[in-house]
Design goal:
Layout (H helix, E strand, L loop, with lengths): L1 E4 L2 E6 L6 E4 L10 H7 L5 E5 L15 H14 L5 E6 L1 H12 L4 E7 L9 H15 L1 H10 L8 H11 L4 H25 L4 E5 L1 E3 L5 E3 L7 H9 L4 E4 L7 H4 L1 H27 L6
Parallel strand pairs: 3-4, 3-5, 5-6, 6-7, 7-10
Antiparallel strand pairs: 1-2, 2-4, 8-9
Helix pairs in contact: 1-10, 2-3, 3-7, 4-7, 5-6
Amino acid sequence: MSEVHAPVWYERAGTGSPPLVFVHGFACSHADWRPQLDHFAATQTVIACDLRGHGATPGDPADCSIETYGADVAALLNALDLRGAMLIGHSLGCRVVLQAALEIPERVAGVVLIDGSRIGMGDPETAGRVMREQIRATGYGAFARRLFEEMFLPSSGVMLKTSIVERALELPAPIGTALFPRMVAWDAANMERALSTLSAPLLVVQSTNVNAQRVRVALSADETTPWLDLVTRLAPSARIEILTGVGHFPQLEVPEEVNRLVGDFAAVCAATFMLGSASQSGSAPLA
C-alpha cells in the first residue's frame, strides 16, 4: 500500500509487531529496502518512506535537512500511531532515525544504523561551509558521481552499482547541494548528543569505512574505525556487527545477513519494550 502523509510518501505492508520503519540514504529512495520489505511483510508491519526531495516525495531545498527529515519520520510514526517501532536507517538515514528517536523516544523500541559514519566535526558552521565549498569547486554532478561510484566493491556487481549511481545523479542539484553540507553540519553539532542520549537499544551494522586517504574500503571482521570507536564510547551497550567483503549497500548486497541481524535484534527490542510498557501501565499494547 502506497500512501502520502504530508509531506512524505511511504509504502506500508504487512501487519504485526514490532513495526519496522526504514529510512534511506542521500540521493536514494525507499526502493533500497525492497529485500527487507518483502521479507518482513510476511510477519509484521513494514514502512519505508521517501524523504523530502527524494523518490516520490517532492521537496524544497530550503526544507531538506536532517532536522526536518527526523521531524517528518517522527510525525509519520505519530500519524500512524506506531508504538514500539524499530527505526532502521542507512547512511544519511542513520542521522535521520537518530534525530527521530530524539523527538519521540516513547514510540521507539530500537534503532538500527546500517553503514553509518560521522563526517563533520568541530564547529558545525565551519564544517558545513567547508563542504559547500568543496562541492562548489568540484561541481555537484562530479561530486555526486564520485561519491557513489566509490561506494561499491568489485564484488558488489556492475548492475547494482550502475543503477544506484544513475539514480543518485537524478537528485536535483539544488537539493543535493543544500542537503549534503547540512548533513555534515548535523554530524558536528548533534551526532555525539544523539548517540549519548539515545534511550532505545542500538544495533550498528557496518560494512565499510572511508579511510584517511578518503577512500572507501571494506572492513575486516576484527577491525574498528573512528565511527565505531565513537559509538562504543558514547553508546557502550550498542551491539556492533561487521559484514565483511561488502560495499556501502549491505541491505542490497547481502540482504539475508541484514534481515537476520535486524530480525533477531527487533525480537529482543520488542520484548524489552513490551516489558517496559507493562511496568508503566499494566499492559503492553504494540501497534
